[in-house]
Amino acid sequence: MKKMIINGGKTLKGDVFIGGAKNSTVALIPAAILSHTPVVLESVPRIQDVDNLMSLLMDMNVTSDFEQTTLTIDPTNIELRPLPHGKIKSLRASYYFMGALLGRFGRASVAFPGGDDIGPRPIDQHFKGMECLGAKVENIAGEIVVSAPKEGLKGAHITLDMTSVGATVNIILAAVTATGKTVLENAAKEPEIIDLATFLNNMGAKIRGAGTDTIRIEGVEKLEAKNAHTIIPDRIEAGTYLSLAACIGDGVCLHNIISEHLDSFLAKVEAMGVNMDVNEDSIYVYPSGDLSMIQVKTMPYPGFATDLQQPITPLLISAKSGEGVVIDTIYPKRVKHIRELNKMGAKIKVENDIILIHPGSKLTGAEVVADEIRAGASLMLAGLMADGQTVIHNADNILRGYDCVEEKLRLLGADVTVYEDE
Ligand SMILES: CC(=O)N[C@H]1[C@@H](OP(=O)(O)OP(=O)(O)OC[C@H]2O[C@@H](n3ccc(=O)[nH]c3=O)[C@H](O)[C@@H]2O)O[C@H](CO)[C@@H](O)[C@@H]1O
Ligand SMILES: C=C(OP(=O)(O)O)C(=O)O
């Protein structure tokens, strides 16, 4: 594991370039194995999740090459092989190989996935969707084995019991080459779903309605990539840097932004009194004056993202007055950052899964642990705001999803170094 050491209290200034979206990338890489020709992805973030997915591709005899921000994947000699449990459990998105392998081979055998420890994360809706398409789903000694009938998968009418990003992606991946028409209702509307549909449609898929809650898929026989696909900017990375810029920035410009993807987040920071110029593909954040406290309630897109409730918390701590409230309706147990922030001097309580934030605490450096990616982001921001040194253990949880984070922070003037942890 790695640790991140931050000497905090520095004012940050300058430009930061947002990378491609982690949550698109981790769906697009498994989706690439549906192609019968090589795939080129542009604007790919340098994150550990990508390294782990590339390694899983290799286990299936799929070669990949990552130069700068371009990832080339050649699935033409793909083989259906057992996938090592350790690698599958190293990230959440490995479960997308279920849908992708089912679509490509009519069979998949994948261990239960890992990913962030943010409370219960059932995947019953993924199974429900695949079963509606005619697949048999079995749990054989801790391995999920999904198999299509002899005649192949058949399009179906599927209604998700709750909106799920992962289930929407897995069902799309399985249904694009099924026979006939699939209608998916109560689908997730996240921008990453639209990105996936754009990628697949450019390979010959027939997906309509991505970005709405009804997605219609006309199954096609074969997918072939013909053009490079540029991944959308990471709205969660953007929100994280925006929060940082508002906390301790002396003029920070975020580049490679689709501001519409951040609407609910921007509305909240605006309500706090953060001063910004929102331009076509950049946001300039002015140094903050006195900030007002707000309440945040997470919701599926286009609501306030659960992945941004932790990164915005240091900003709430720096509000001048009022009591802050954060309610995470998607992952109510996503509170692992609170105990660690309190070690740094924050005054935050959790009562019945409701996070209550007392404003204006002076933060001081401390030794803390990043239990998951966005808890890590929250601690990283707190460490940059704090006086003195902060050591964040389990920093891999930050590196698995934040593109070139050490370099980006240093360019803004931060004193940050990542080391191997003994
Ligand atoms: C790789 C990726 O894109 N990860 C994102 C994805 O995770 P992920 O796709 O795992 O999250 P989901 O959208 O599936 O989960 C939403 C809610 O539905 C519940 N649920 C989900 C599936 C299911 O079969 N049964 C069920 O009960 C979950 O427990 C959760 O309460 O969306 C989350 C919610 O926006 C984000 O925090 C993650 O960053
Ligand atoms: C929860 C997250 O990721 P994952 O679904 O990959 O665990 C996240 O990105 O905040």
TrEMBL record:
Q: Tell me the pathway.
A: Cell wall biogenesis; peptidoglycan biosynthesis
Which residues are listed for UDP-N-acetyl-alpha-D-glucosamine binding in this entry?
A: R92, R121, P122, I123, D124, Q125, D307, I330
UniProt record, GO biological process: cell division; cell wall organization; peptidoglycan biosynthetic process; regulation of cell shape; UDP-N-acetylgalactosamine biosynthetic process
Q: Name one GO molecular function term.
A: UDP-N-acetylglucosamine 1-carboxyvinyltransferase activity
Q: Which Pfam families match?
A: EPSP_synthase
Q: Does the keyword ATP-binding apply?
A: no
Q: Which residues form the active site?
A: D116
* Matches recorded under SUPFAM superfamilies: EPT/RTPC-like
Give residue ranges for domain Enolpyruvate transferase. 7-409
> What Enzyme Commission number(s) does the record list for this chain?
2.5.1.7
Quote the InterPro entries the UniProt record gives. Enolpyruvate_Tfrase_dom, Enolpyruvate_Tfrase_sf, MurA_subfamily, RNA3'P_cycl/enolpyr_Trfase_a/b, UDP_GlcNAc_COvinyl_MurA
Q: What class of enzyme is it?
A: transferase
Catalytically driven reaction(s): phosphoenolpyruvate + UDP-N-acetyl-alpha-D-glucosamine = UDP-N-acetyl-3-O-(1-carboxyvinyl)-alpha-D-glucosamine + phosphate
**Localization annotation:** Cytoplasm
A cellular component annotation (GO) from this entry: cytoplasm
Keyword list, A-Z: Cell cycle, Cell division, Cell shape, Cell wall biogenesis/degradation, Cytoplasm, Peptidoglycan synthesis, Transferase
Q: Which residues bind phosphoenolpyruvate?
A: K22, N23
Function statement? Cell wall formation. Adds enolpyruvyl to UDP-N-acetylglucosamine.
Tell me its family: Belongs to the EPSP synthase family. MurA subfamily.
| The name this protein goes by in its record | UDP-N-acetylglucosamine 1-carboxyvinyltransferase
Q: State the organism of origin.
A: Holzapfeliella floricola DSM 23037 = JCM 16512
- What lineage does UniProt assign to this protein's organism? Bacteria, Bacillati, Bacillota, Bacilli, Lactobacillales
Gene field = murA
